[in-house]
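Its record is set out here:
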Amino acid sequence: MRPIIACILAICLPFFAIAQEKLSLDNAIAIALEKSFGVKIAKSREEINRNDNTRGNAGMLPVVTGAAQQNFTNNNVNQTFFSIGATTREPLVQSGINNRNNNASLTAVWTVFDGLGMYATAQRLREIESLGKTNVEINIENTVAEVCNAYYDIIRQKQRLKALKNALDISGVRRELAKANYEAGATSKVEYLAAQVDFNSDQAALVAQQQNLQNAKVNLNALLVRDFNLDFAVPDTILVRQDLAIDKLRNNLNSQNPNLIAARQSQNIASIAEKETRAARYPRVDLLAGYNYFTANNEAGFGAKSTKTGQLSYGARLAVPIYDGYNQRRREQNAKVNTRIAEYQEADLRNQLQSILERTFNAYQNSLELLKLEEQNLKIARQNVEIAFDRYKVGNSTPIEFREAQRNAVAAESRTIEAAFNIKLAEIELLRLSSSIVEEAK
């Protein structure tokens, strides 16, 4: 019998281990950053920007083009000639005459001056590549914040479930006590039925809370891009920080927040685009070179039977803009407006982020104070439940009084859980705004 039991345990234990995987916040963040589609998309766009940042894309390198062409013709000839004195030439009649022409060419164009527009373009491409890196940082920080919020939400739902289980246990003891008193004739059936109703109500609340916990795990699994129904274990408590300082957060927001950095980079890109647009006002100088090779085969019986030519050409081209219907001026004016818009957007974003930081920090401080108050209330509410239950057992308290004490305790514990969770949410948001989420959110 023992070998059979050992075999069953050996088979089942791995499945229990998988079902009860212990998932730390560090591991959850690592999985999310590896599998997140948002991060992958941002990195792919960064790769495109990096590929575009070349001297050739900026127009600094020559453009060389090769071409080859072969033509075939089939001719029919019927020619008559004028008489020259007494000499008359016979008519020339031919059909199915095949001619073949081959042409190959190589051309090169190198822009050596375009009003310094190519250098502005190269600068803009570098700035776009930097913007792509900043967008990756934004996606990473947002992903980490989302994972942290979802992770601590699971702990919150788990704590709620534990509180409801405790309430259900007390309701179960009360129901059994009411049943025993009813069967002994000490109380009426109404009191027993009331205890049964309260027990069923607590049981229904527990079932609903189990669903909430399961949904919270589904949400985190979705962020980790894995099986939605994969079960795992998390810690039982939410540890909050009380050392966040507003001055440091403000400084980090202004200097490190990737959203502000991206806004400044967009402003630089708009300013560089102005230089590119102004470059079109200046003359353009191109160096030109080319080689052309031509062959022809003629079967018509007159003219040259075959021809071969090679031609090398080189030179310079100067293009001077003179008048384009004032379109150049319009483009420059629009470029200046775009730069001004980018400046407004950066200032507006800075104002919004600073406002969010101040509000979140106020909520963080208030939640810290609220947590202290709710923890005190919870201790009192639990003591009240114990006293009310002891009095109920000896008949010195009514079921209504005991139930009210029990409800107050559950509500106090729920408020305490919410206060700790709200502190954590505010903490995560403050760390995200100050661009410290990746290093400190764990």
